[in-house]
Specification:
alpha/beta, 6 strands, about 20% strand, six-stranded parallel sheet
Length: about 180
């Protein structure tokens, strides 16, 4: 399946102050997550983000937090590792009314994995962006990828996301969004 711009929501998971610098290749995750937020903002697509126990782990890192506040993205505060495990089905559909969920954030083998599988089991099509997810240990990320694939989750990269969202070089967004491709 391809990503459908009219049926997609971005979910950023736990890109928080006290976690991010412990993550393998965290600078790439930050760079790509900012680009993804820019792309979704430019296309006026919905964005949801989570924070794992923000009193202890801090808020979402700046400047991502500033970007999300500016566009009034919906925030989920949680203590569970899955973003949706303690939310009832009706509320989940209100938070995620679109059928495709695009995921980035940390940690791949914990919160990304559990959230992705839970969303998939609720009937969503789930896409995890390779360059925009991470774990403290690269091997843990790779183990998570194996499990995600076996559970029906699509692994994509940033370019796949952008080109599937716009689909055609004649799209009015192509020129603006192509600047994010390096």
């Amino acid at each position: 399946m391809l990503i459908d711009r009219n049926d997609s929501t971005l979910l950023l998971i736990d890109i928080q102050e006290k976690l991010i610098k412990k993550i393998f290749d965290f600078k790439s995750i930050i760079i790509h997550s900012k680009k993804i937020v820019d792309v979704f903002s430019f296309l006026k697509l919905p964005i949801v983000y989570s924070e794992q126990y923000p009193n202890g782990l801090g808020k979402t890192i700046n400047p991502i937090d500033d970007m999300l506040r500016k566009i009034k993205a919906l925030k989920i505060e949680k203590t569970t590792f899955s973003c949706i495990s303690d939310i009832n089905d009706n509320e989940i559909r209100k938070i995620f009314p679109k059928n495709q969920i695009i995921i980035c954030g940390i940690e791949t083998h914990i919160c990304i994995l559990q959230t992705s599988i839970d969303l998939y089991n609720k009937g969503y099509e789930v896409f995890v962006i390779d360059e925009a997810v991470g774990s403290r240990n690269e091997r843990h990320k790779n183990l998570a990828f194996d499990r995600l694939i076996k559970n029906g989750i699509s692994l994509i990269n940033f370019e796949m996301l952008v080109f599937e969202l716009i689909r055609d070089s004649k799209d009015e967004s192509f020129k603006e969004l192509s600047k994010y491709i390096t």
